[in-house]
Design goal:
CATH architecture: Up-down Bundle
Largest sheet: none
Order of helices and strands: HHHH
CATH topology: Four Helix Bundle (Hemerythrin (Met), subunit A)
Strand content: under 5%
Distance between the termini: 35 Å
Number of helices: 4
Helix content: over 70%
Radius of gyration: 15 Å
Shape: elongated
Structural class: mainly alpha
CATH class: Mainly Alpha
C-alpha cells in the first residue's frame, strides 16, 4: 500500500494519469519490500520518469492551447520535479543513496504536492472552459 495517497482530481485525464503514477509508485514500494535487484528498481524509476514526462507533455500542450495564465509557473514546477527525480535516480545508480520506503514516501509527497498545488487549479481552469 502506498504510504502517500495522491490527491484526486475530478477529471478523467488527470485521474487516469494519477492512477498510472500511483501504480508505478506502488510497484516501487513492492520491489523494495521484496528486496529486488538494483537494475529492476532502476528500471521502474525510469518508468516513473517516462510516465511523468508523458503526463507533463500532455498538460503543457493543454496549457498552451488554452492560454492557461499559470502556464510558465506550472512548466517550471514540472521541470523542478523531473530534475529532482533525475538526481534521485542518478544518486541511486551511483550508490550514493539507498532506496527505502522513506525515499518512495518523499517522492510520493513531492508528486502529491505538485498535484495539489499545480494540477488541481489547471483541471479547474480547463473544466470552466468546457
Amino acid at each position: 500500500m502506498l504510504l502517500v495517497t495522491l490527491p484526486c482530481i475530478d477529471s478523467p485525464s488527470f485521474t487516469r494519469h494519477n492512477n498510472i503514477i500511483t501504480t508505478v509508485l506502488q510497484d516501487l514500494e513492492t520491489l523494495i519490500w521484496e528486496n529486488k535487484p538494483k537494475d529492476v528498481i532502476l528500471g521502474t524509476l525510469l518508468v516513473l520518469r517516462n510516465k511523468l514526462l508523458l503526463d507533463f507533455a500532455e498538460q503543457e500542450s493543454m496549457m498552451v492551447l488554452t492560454n492557461y495564465p499559470l502556464e510558465r509557473v506550472h512548466h517550471r514546477a514540472h521541470d523542478g520535479l523531473i530534475r529532482v527525480l533525475l538526481m534521485f535516480i542518478q544518486a541511486y545508480d551511483e550508490d550514493r543513496i539507498i532506496i527505502s520506503e522513506y525515499a518512495i514516501k518523499m517522492l510520493s509527497e513531492g508528486i502529491a504536492e505538485h498535484i495539489e498545488v499545480h494540477d488541481k487549479p489547471l483541471a479547474e481552469y480547463l473544466s470552466k472552459l468546457g
